Amino acid sequence: MRMIRILLAFLVLALPAVSFGQFGISIAIGPPALPVYEQPICPGDGYLWTPGYWAYNDEVSDYYWVPGTWIQAPEVGFLWTPGYWGWRGGGFFFNEGYWGEHIGFYGGINYGFGYFGEGYGGGRWDHGHFFYNRSVSNVNITIIHNVYNTRIENVTENRVSYNGGKGGIEAHANSEQEAAAHERHVPAVAAQTEHVQTARANPELRASANHGNPPIAATSRPGEPGEHAPAGKESAEAPKSGSGAEANGAHAAVHPNDLTPIARPAPANSGNAKADRKYEQNQDKLIAKQTQERQNLQQKQEAEHQQKANANNQKLEQKHQQQTQQLAERHSAQQQSLQSRQPQQRPPKR
After folding, report:
1. In-domain check, residue 345
2. Which of 145, 255, 291, 335 is spaced 20 to 30 A from 264 at the CA atom?
3. What is the pTM of this model?
């Protein structure tokens, strides 16, 4: 059997590749369905989401889950095109993912969180900065301010993890995706490669052990402890309001004390001393007001914990997380509103 696999590997290398990075042995049975999981909160500005997928370990003849994770792009303006399994010549072959300026074809697979089968809706580059779409990307807006909100409708909930073959996704590359495949690419960075090796070495991530429900479904960063795959939420589904991305996921602030301290903006320097002083006074008032609101909500939540000390805290924590997120979003909007009225520097007199 080992010799047959080796011969198949050479056969694949001899065949013309139909997409970027197609290689490996032919697998007769396709990978399991994509598991159900939450997207961890983005660890910092500049990280891009790379969805989880099933890889194959030839040594044990089994699929294993590579958890989704946040990765820093190797170059400004680069996006990640996920890899995918595709049917060809009587078997499944894996097409490696890659970094490039445009999203290429990834088999029509609905990986979720912006990768809904075609293109990417989780964010975009703009003047050297990556902006996150909060409707599908889990970001903490108290830390990351380069965000926007574009709701993606009519997302098909499909957990099939391969293209072609029996029961597979019937999708083909369009002209734009074919053009993207011929652009300059960068393969997976070192952190991604190490992430895959870590997953490969974990027996619990093998499909035969977890039956399609891996214990570590996603991580905030490569190699970090991950999130379990909770029942009741499709990985391919865009997060609903008040949960998922908008609630900042499992690692989000649950109580106001978990939030980062309120940052004071840089002093105004418009050249108009009176206007600058008034603006900074307004900033001081807003920060004091928001700090007091945090303290009030913290005290209220602590009182609720004492009242329900012997009860199941799961629903209470979910309630507190939603309250805290709503408070953070309201405070962020207030800060942005005030900063939009910051005195502007006067043009020099001629």
Report:
1. no
2. 255
3. 0.63
